[in-house]
What does this fold into?
Amino acid sequence: MAKTSKKTQNEEAGKEKNHKSESNEDVIVDEDVKDSSSNVDVDADADANASSGAAESETDAVEKDPIDALKEALSSERDKYLRLAAEYDNFRKRSIKERESTYSDARADVITRLLPVYDNLERALKTECADESFYKGIEMTMTQLTEILENIGVVTIPAVGETFDPNRHNAVMTIENPELGEKVIAEEFLKGFMLGERVIRFSTVVVAN
It folds into this structure.
């Protein structure tokens, strides 16, 4: 009986020892879980703070980007406008110049085609004519043609007695004449004409000395 009680006491002591060991293990496990949970919370807070900072940076970037984009767009459009304005101004000036040149060329061409008529009338006036009325008619025609040419800006180029000018005169012959100075025009074969400042036909002349 005594042996049984002692055995029973030993068994109960072993059970208590095992129970204490299990309790210690539970405490250690709980502390580990608590520590890991604490670490998880810290990491979560750090991630949340990082996410919040990134979100704020993105928000700032979003707030700044539209302004920068608008400035760039305005600068680009301004450059386009300035280029377009310059191109239009160049086109306008070129068009005016071309129109004036075309008009001047057309006038010069028409007048040049009429000059042979002037030449023939001039030759007729230099020819002796027994019919005074006929001669008078040629003279009146020549006067009318000269007035028309003057009214549209056509003038004759001075020749005889003038100093030879290669920009207005075409020398086909030279002679020696002590009465005339050097490069003085002695004779005119064909009268020259100018339209404004433009020579539409050179004077054909003889130059002295």
Notes: The chain has two helices and six strands. Confidence is low (pLDDT under 50) at residues 1-8, 19-42.
